TrEMBL record:
Taxonomic source organism: Leadbetterella byssophila (strain DSM 17132 / JCM 16389 / KACC 11308 / NBRC 106382 / 4M15)
Domain DUF6922: 13-63
InterPro entries assigned to the protein according to its UniProt record, in alphabetical order: DUF6922
Protein name: DUF6922 domain-containing protein
Superkingdom as given in the UniProt entry: Bacteria
Amino acid sequence: MEAFKISDRPTLAPKWFWDMDYERIDWQASYKSIIARIIERGGPEHWEELIRFYGREKVLKALKSEIVFLPDYAIEKVSVYFRIEKEEMLCYIRKRSKPGHWI
């Protein structure tokens, strides 16, 4: 009987990583940029794959205290989907602390 093996990479299409060599991505070392990219460009089915691969706690930790930028629409979606306040997210706090350009 073959033992269950957890994949060494998430099940995410190479199209999400057009600017990287997909076969050489270090999925653990690059987790913050991978999570940010998939949160920004993907949908709930892709977010579930992040949770499956990295674990909910690691994804939430990245969202709350490690990812420094997400666009407003992604912050809104993440807040609703993960049931976290925008004010708990570093990217939102940083955005609020920097005044916008006056033009």
